[in-house]
Write a sequence for this structure.
């Protein structure tokens, strides 16, 4: 799978309406089309229209109850990946299979990273391009907030970790040697995406680098009681 193409598809998917914002009629028509498409992609030659109606009604209800925050385009991606076997073997085109696909998609690493990346881009764009000093002050406030959030909950991931790490490194606060960086990457060398989703080796290495940067940022935070620029 080409990660760039997948990323663009994900971006477009997040621009489509959420399940909660769709009318029952539109949702039913949409789900029916996705079920029929799944039959075709998996290789079924025929299907029973009565079965499709039952599946549509139940799946629409489940989506409204358990996945109202998902976007319409995300369902398209989820079903496409499921039909291609990215979420493991399927036992026919049935409700159990669709629920398995939805759960796998919802908890996938790539969806999580896409959400974080979009949040990251949104937050960075919120920094006005007024002056270097102004932006540095805003970045300091962001780092201070993330620092204290991490100190309070060290088991949680740090949002925007890669950007924070690069900023602190560029200003000389973090001074990891090449050996330390390679050691950090080695700790995540066996990382693979969840749910058997396939990505290229280059894309896998890029994800490992992000995880290593977050780990190094945490080590830096662990070494401090207070940030050097915290008043």
């Amino acid at each position: 799978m080409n990660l760039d193409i997948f990323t663009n598809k994900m971006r477009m998917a997040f621009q489509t309406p959420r399940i909660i914002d769709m009318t029952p009629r539109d949702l039913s028509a949409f789900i029916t089309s996705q079920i029929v498409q799944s039959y075709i992609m998996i290789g079924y030659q025929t299907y029973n229209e009565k079965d499709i109606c039952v599946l549509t009604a139940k799946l629409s209800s489940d989506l409204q109850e358990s996945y109202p925050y998902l976007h319409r385009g995300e369902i398209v991606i989820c079903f496409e990946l499921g039909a291609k076997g990215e979420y493991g073997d399927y036992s026919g085109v049935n409700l159990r299979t669709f629920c398995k696909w939805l759960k796998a998609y919802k908890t996938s690493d790539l969806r999580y990273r896409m959400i974080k990346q979009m949040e990251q881009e949104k937050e960075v764009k919120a920094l006005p391009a007024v002056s270097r000093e102004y932006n540095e002050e805003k970045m300091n406030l962001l780092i201070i907030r993330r620092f204290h959030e991490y100190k309070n909950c060290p088991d949680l991931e740090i949002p925007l970790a890669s950007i924070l790490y690069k900023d602190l490194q560029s200003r000389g606060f973090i001074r990891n040697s090449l050996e330390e960086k390679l050691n950090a990457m080695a700790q995540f060398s066996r990382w693979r995406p969840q749910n058997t989703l396939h990505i290229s080796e280059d894309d896998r290495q890029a994800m490992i680098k992000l995880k290593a940067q977050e780990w190094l940022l945490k080590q830096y935070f662990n070494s401090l009681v207070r940030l050097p620029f915290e008043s």
